[in-house]
Design goal:
13 helices, binds flavin-adenine dinucleotide, about 425 residues, FAD/NAD(P)-binding domain, alpha+beta, about 30% helix
Length: about 425
């Protein structure tokens, strides 16, 4: 049976970094990196619209969230981790590979040529150089723990896990009669690093496979919610005239009339609701069975009094009440017309420009989401080693954990940080 010292499951950002880190810290170990897809780093390829926003200079715990952990626990978990592998470490890591980073005015980091493929090329070459064995088209579907009488293959090899893999066969080898697309195989290993990612973005490899493996290991997982995904607003019909309209502004989310989140930046009305970076930040708060609404402030630069003075001054110059013309002083035509249709007085016009209300009835599904909020409950993890407290031979990193980041490079940075620390195998040696 094939033996490896360490098997890393999932060749996304966190798994690739974990495999590299194992080799950097334990060069003598035999490492296998496996993935169910036919290529590595699929989400990295699509990240930042193909430009790969791979980190952010403003790396603080406040840019990360957790579904289950308290703010204090989450901050401690993130801070302890980034103390050991931070933005500068990420920059130096890529720079050592030969990939220089470009940092924009918001602190977002990209490969200098802003091409995600380059990140993949540099990381692939490094995996090769470090002699990490990469096995693609291989789906790990069962982990068996060998707790008693570990098989000692020789003095140095302890076998703790037997892994069952479904291997997708290349077309040429498929047995047409059996209609089988798969071959099965077993491997054994001493330590496991689970870097299976989330169920977000199925087309880019997102799946429940990681959560299913964790269930087998009796690891507890929080509720999972699509995050960084557009919102669905009520009254779809009325939204049609707004479709395609972009604006910069602020939004406040209310749950059962109580303010729970504020966001600012770019928004885009879509056929079903609201997209754009700022709107997508709201999605992680939307749970089933609660009532939500948002108010949109189209003019955060003016307070209500300043806006009132402006509107009243302008209104004196026009003969009839023309709410649409007044609104056009601040928002695009279609938005101005939508607002005018829902306005009966100057006071209402001011309220609609400062706090236009929409009911939020949900979010688009995980398939359209960039990430999932939620994952492995953090108190089961020994940090910053990232091993499972109940089994120090199993490490978990990346999006599988109950940590999600804001847009701007924080999710990939979490993958680099957690992958690097997991790969140190600190609980084990
Ligand atoms: C469209 C899009 C754009 C994004 N843009 C950005 C951005 O610009 N900046 C940013 O910071 N973040 C971005 N993100 C989020 C970021 O890409 C992810 O948070 C990050 O890639 C997660 O890394 P991961 O290693 O945890 O998981 P993944 O990258 O999802 O990797 C997990 C891997 O594990 C494999 N796998 C799972 N289960 C098994 C199994 N049982 N057996 C074998 N293999 C398995 C999967 O095939 C997959 O390749 C974006 C995401 C998307 C979808």
């Amino acid at each position: 049976m094939n033996y490896y010292d360490i098997v890393v499951v999932g060749a996304g950002a966190s798994g690739v970094m974990a495999a590299i880190s194992v080799k950097l810290h334990h060069p003598e170990k035999k490492v296998l990196l496996l993935d169910r897809q036919d290529k590595i780093l699929s989400k990295v390829r699509a990240s930042g619209n193909g430009r790969c926003n791979l980190s952010n200079k403003n790396l603080f715990p406040s840019n990360f969230y957790s579904i289950q952990s308290s703010e204090k626990q989450k901050n401690k978990f993130v801070q302890t981790s980034i103390n050991q592998f931070n933005f500068q470490d990420t920059k130096d890591f890529f720079s050592d590979l030969g990939l220089f980073l470009r940092i924009d005015e918001e602190g977002r980091a990209y490969p200098y040529a802003e091409q995600a493929e380059l990140v993949i090329d540099f990381l692939s070459a490094y995996l090769d150089q470090l002699k990490v064995k990469v096995l693609l088209n291989s789906d790990l579907d069962e982990i068996k723990m060998i707790e008693e009488n570990p098989i000692k293959t020789d003095q140095d090899k302890r076998t703790n896990f037997k892994l069952h893999l479904q291997k997708r066969l290349p077309k040429s080898q498929k047995n047409k009669n059996l209609k089988s697309k798969f071959d099965q195989t077993n491997i054994v290993c001493e330590k496991l690093i689970l870097a299976c990612g989330s169920s977000a973005a199925k087309k880019l490899g997102g799946s429940h496979a990681g959560y299913e493996l964790l269930h087998q290991l009796n690891v507890k997982i929080t509720d999972l919610r699509p995050a960084l995904v557009p919102l669905i607003l009520a009254k779809e019909e009325k939204l049609k005239t707004l479709k395609g309209q972009r604006f910069k502004g602020q939004a406040i989310l209310y749950k059962n009339q109580k303010l729970i989140f504020k966001t600012a930046g770019e928004f885009l009305f879509t056929e079903k609701g609201l997209s754009g970076i700022a709107a997508m930040e709201i999605a992680r708060y939307i749970e089933k069975n609660s009532k939500y609404h948002i108010t949109i402030d189209f003019i955060p630069d003016l307070n209500e009094q300043e806006l009132k003075e402006f509107i009243l001054r302008q209104s004196e110059k026009i003969k009839e009440k023309d709410f649409s013309s007044l609104a056009k002083g601040f928002v695009r035509k279609n938005i101005a017309e939508y607002i005018a249709e829902n306005t009966n007085s100057y006071q209402e016009l001011i309220e609609n420009l400062k706090a236009l209300k929409f009911e939020v009835i949900g979010t688009l599904s995980a398939e359209k989401a960039q990430i999932m909020a939620g994952g492995v409950i953090l108190e089961q993890i020994d940090f910053p080693s990232f091993s499972l407290k109940k089994n120090p031979n199993i490490y978990i990193c990346g999006e599988l954990l109950d940590i999600d980041g804001k847009t701007g490079g924080f999710n990939l940075q979490w993958a680099w940080t957690s992958g690097y620390l997991a790969g140190q195998l600190k609980s084990a040696y």
